[in-house]
Structure formats: C-alpha cells, structure tokens
Amino acid sequence: MAARQPRFNQQVLIDTTPLPDDIPKVSEIGASSAPLLSASFFIGARCKPYNDDFMHCKTEANGTGEVDCLREGRKVTRCAASVLEDINKSCLEEFRKHWQCLENNNQQLWQCRRWERPLNNCVFEKLNLEKKIPGAPEGETPVHLRKRQIFAHSIATQ
Amino acid sequence: MPQDMPPTGGYEPVQYRRSLPVRGFRPAYYLVAVAGIMTYGFWRFGQGIREQQELSREKMWSRIHLIPVLQAEEDRDLVRRTLASKAMEKELLGAETKTYHNDRFVRPTYAVTPSNVTK
Predict the structure, then answer these.
(1) Residue range B72-116, pLDDT digits in tens
(2) Does some domain include residue A21?
(3) Do B118 and A14 touch (CB under 8 A)?
(4) What CA–CA distance (Å, rounded) separates A85 from A126?
(5) Is A7 within a domain?
(6) B21 to chain A, minimum CA–CA distance in Å?
(7) Domain membership flag for residue A106
(8) Is B48 in Cβ contact with A13 (below 8 Å)?
(9) What keywords are assigned to this protein (chain A) (predicted)?
(10) Which of A44, A78, A132, B24 could form a disulfide with B65 if both were Cys (CB 3.0 to 4.6 A apart)?
C-alpha cells in the first residue's frame, strides 16, 4: 500500500493537518536509506518483539490495520529511534564511515565490509546488539564475517 | 626392342605418407588439461553462487528488519490524511458522507488542494 503524494502540475500540495490530539505524538525516524540499512540488523536485534507484534497486528486486523495498529506502530518507531540514538551516541564515527560507504557504493553491503567490521564490533561491545542473519547455513562463516568478498570490486574495501 | 625392366634390386619404396614431425603433446594431455580448467571454473562459479545466495539473504533480512519501521510511519501518515479529509468533509458538508455502500476502507483517489501552497 504505497501512498503517493498528490502531485499537481505546478507544485506539490501536501495537506499538513496534524493528527488529532487524542492520538499520542511520536517523532518520526528521520533517517535516510543508507543509515537505516547500516543499522538495520541492530534494529532487528533489539526491536524484534515490537516488529513482530506490529506485523501480526496488521495481519490480524483484516484491512483496518492502519488505524488499529497505531499503538504498535508507535512502539516500533520509538524502538528503532532508540537504536539509532544509541548508535549515534556510542559508535558515531564507525556508523558514519559505514553508511557513507554504503551511500557511495550503491548501498551494496559487500562493498563496505572494511567499515562494517569495526561498526559491528563497537555496537556489540557497547550496546550488546549482534548482527545475525537468520537462516544462514550452519558450519559456514557468515557472509559478513568472511575475509574475502568475491563480488567486491576492490580489495581495499575488504 | 628391349623392354624397360625394373632397376636391379627393385624399386625404392614409394613415399605415400607425409612424414612431418608431430607437434605438441599427446591428445590425452590436452583432454586432461581442459577438464582441469573446466573443473576449476565450475568450482569458482559454485562458490560465487553460494556467496550470492548469502548476500541476497543478508539484503532480504536487512529489509525485513526495516519494513515495520517504514510501514508504521506510512500508516500514521495515511491515518492523518484520512482523518484530515474526514474533518474537512464534515466542516464543509456538515455531515460525513459515504462514497461507497460498504464499511471497508477505500483509499481516496482524489486529493483536496490545500488553501496555501506548502512547497
């Protein structure tokens, strides 16, 4: 259900009426795609219960999930915002390096392992959030920990 | 008239086959070499496929982790717009009218232009 902003010929017209006061306010994430991608596994690690709760709510609401799941949605947003805030507090340098690399490399994770490793270590040490890819075959090194990335276009970024 | 006879000791053997030196290795060696190159290539190809699978799994999960966040934001925006349009309708018409004979939510296909341009 992708909502498109109504576009008219001359200008973009957006109805800016805020939500009514009886719905609690929540500040939106406000991060662009590269930082979100960089932090996605940490968001997943901390916010999994909230995320699952929200998605279940949406599934079970039979088409009215937009209104019925506002509460769960706020929890999801707050949790993700808390993760981003914590990363910004404790691992800002590594985080910035990694998402800027993603931004410069078409958001391909395998081009930026060199900056991903220190970020993962820092976040694991300070926030105790670990990047884990569910469903990866056991007994193999997970792809984000491999020394050599076959598809990376430069060995300088490995 | 005397008849021509073969020379004494017979004719020399006729050379009917070219006697060029054989170049290169025996064919079996080439076969083995090609098989080796092919095996190596397929092995690397297989490694590439495995790695690509893992990379796509990683990408998939990074999106799965992000979907609820993005969806929640989107939903709030949709609810905000819907409530605003309902309020506007009530203010203009004095009553809420139903476009469809149904309670199901139907995403509006029109947009009311706000009085002041926002962007």
Answers:
(1) 999 998 899 888 888 888 888 888 777 788 877 777 776 666 666
(2) no
(3) yes
(4) 13
(5) no
(6) 46
(7) yes
(8) no
(9) Disulfide bond, Electron transport, Membrane, Mitochondrion, Mitochondrion inner membrane, Repeat, Respiratory chain, Transport
(10) A44
